[in-house]
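ligand=XIL
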Amino acid sequence: MTRQTHSRRDFLTRAATATALGLSGTTALSGVSAFATPNVQSPASGPTEGLIPYGSAVRAGALQSDSTYREAIIANCQLVVAEGEMKWADIRPTRGEYRFEKADAIIDFARQNRLEVRGHTLAWYGGLPKWVDEISSRTEAEYELIDHIKTVVSRYRGVIPSWDVVNEPLVDFPESAASLRPCVWTKYLGADYVPIALRTAAMVDPGARLVLNEYDVEFMGPRFAARRKALLQLLRALRDRDVPLHGVGLQAHLFADRAIDRDGLQAFLAEITAMKLDVLITELDVVDYELPGKVSERDALVAKKAAEFLGAVCEVVRPKAILTWGLSDRYTWVPIYFKRPDGMPNRPLPLDADLKRKPLFDVIEQFRRKLA
Ligand code: XIL
């Protein structure tokens, strides 16, 4: 079976062409304050107080149109993150205007159901609207990045307590912290875009937890070891320059055919915690496109991979949160780029497309409770 090879940059920049439709002004949300009490009583899994908070990426459209999905999010999650609605392409469809309707819909849903919201994401090479290609100087790039972060973070100040400020800064196979993924920000600001983004977010909302979010730091192999090493270098450089940063997000898009590098991952996490940085699992799912088709076998292997990963992590650190990149196989990004050769639907998430729990759900629950 030939492995589909997709450059991550290709697929994420292609995805950036998606444009937003929403409508709304750019004034701060009136009367919006931090949610009174989070949804600590999730009926589906019983009392959740003291457990590692669990959440999921959500889609505004599906929340609006799919009541069973909406109820499943409410029943199972303590926090949510917008899968796309807070990315540049959705908030900034055209230059000079901000459209928050879709992001606000998720905020309103979260407020009504006492769910916390994570912000995703402020500075990324992906999810960018076409107009950013018009940027042609350092001055313009700095203005647009800072204005975006100021406008978005101030709108949700006191409502979004944790932001993926910088997402996926490294190239696929980095030589060092200097190996930043080429994008409009590196083109005109170089490596400075990372501290600029973090410092701006901290200035606008000093109470927010600022996170740097990365993928492919979980596995065995030279590329993944290089990514862990480069990311640690980047984190140390930011610390040495007193750049505000509170946590590291491990996206944890796991692949069933990749071995978890237990020792490498635990050494990496030990370094991160030694820097007094939080660890969050931000986008957990298990890409199953190379697994056998038999559903029970596949679900078991998906759960086993997640257990291997969470077991390695939780031996070293208690994650501040565990989020999956979707709750149900009904809405997952995985088949966009990792479609199964046999044409069967992917099964990367805790609930199946009929919202039934899978072994992966039980694994997550096990680790949430294990560290209570
Ligand atoms: C993905 C979305 O899930 C897709 O719908 C979109 O087409 C591309 O982006 N890492 C990230 C997320 O940080 O923002 C990406 O989300 C998945 C990889």
